[in-house]
Amino acid sequence: MRRLIIPLIFGLVGVAILVSLGMWQVQRLAWKQGVLAEIEARIYDDPEPLPDQPNVQDHRYQPVALRGTLGAREARVLVSVKSVGPGYRIISPFETEDGRRILLDRGFVRAAQKDAPRYSGPLSVSGNLHWPDDRNSSTPENDVEDNTWFARDIDQLAERFDTEDVLVVAREASEDTSVTPLPVDTAGIPNDHLQYVVTWFGLAAVWFAMSCYLLWRLARKET
User: Fold this and answer.
1) Do 192 and 131 contact (CB within 8 A), yes or no?
2) Residues sharing a CB contact under 8 Å with residue 69, sequence separation 6 or more, in sequence order
3) Residues 154-211: tens digit of each pLDDT
4) 12 vs 3: which has the higher pLDDT
5) Burial class of residue 104 (count of CB atoms within 10 Å of its CB; 0-12, 13-18, 19+)
6) Structure confidence by residue, pLDDT tens digits, 56-76
7) What family does the database annotate (predicted)?
8) Category of 75 on φ-ψ map: left (φ > 0), alpha (ψ -120 to 50) or beta
9) Which of 77, 130, 140, 191 could form a disulfide with 89 if both were Cys (CB 3.0 to 4.6 A apart)?
């Protein structure tokens, strides 16, 4: 029986560690689902006027309703939309009725519509303030000369269009039918905790089964 003690302890400790990791991920999953629910509620809340000094800490995802004039200039940000394919986000300068100049993410056009004429002029728009995190270590630098952007770098876009460092992502824009809105949602926010839950509990089950098999083999040798 002494030969069984160390494998038994090893098996129990391993299962306990893996189960505890699985339980931790269950807690993280509940936390993340709560965060996403709060963000969803924030995104679809009633629109408000544009804040005087928007900032990411206080105004991320805040819905806003604006009236003003949409500029004719645009930046084209390369994206791919599921079930549609590659295309571009169209970002243009927007001047509000009280004279503020901001950036408006109007939405998506297919690659074939890259150079198609688009609406400019008076516009009523509702959307969300956003500080996108499009760039990572593998994102190419924006080709400003060719007007091909690979990330919505707000500081560069604001400098190019002489606007505030403020981006509104359109949800509805009644007069602008030349672009399909790509509104802010939670689809791009990662939530992999359920996969981790399955992984850790699955490993715990495998560890338990292997430990039982090892103990059975050792017990047979003892007999």
Assistant:
1) no
2) 94, 95, 120, 121, 122, 123
3) 999 999 999 999 999 999 988 888 899 999 888 777 788 989 999 999 999 999 999 9
4) 12
5) buried
6) 999 999 999 999 999 999 999
7) Belongs to the SURF1 family.
8) beta
9) 77
| 195, 181 contact by CB (below 8 A) | no
Percent of the chain residues past pLDDT 70, beyond the cut? 98
Looking at the structure, do residues 116 and 210 belong to the same domain, yes or no?
no
Report which secondary-structure segment, H or E, holds 40.
helix 2-43
Q: Is residue 184 part of a domain?
A: no
Can you give the CATH number for the domain in which 108 is found? 2.40.50
For the record, the structure tokens of 220 come out as: 């047979």
Q: How far is it, in rounded angstroms, from Cα 221 to Cα 223?
A: 5
In one-letter notation, the amino acid at residue 214 is: L
User: Which residue reads 């198609």 in tokens?
Assistant: 116
Which pair of tokens denotes residue 54?
């928007």
| Average pLDDT value for the chain | 91
Cβ atoms within 10 Å of 70's Cβ, excluding its own: 23
pLDDT, one tens digit per residue, over 96-114 is 999 999 999 999 999 999 9
Q: Give domain status of residue 81, yes or no.
A: yes
207 and 133 in a single domain? The answer is: no
For the whole model, what pTM was predicted? Answer: 0.78
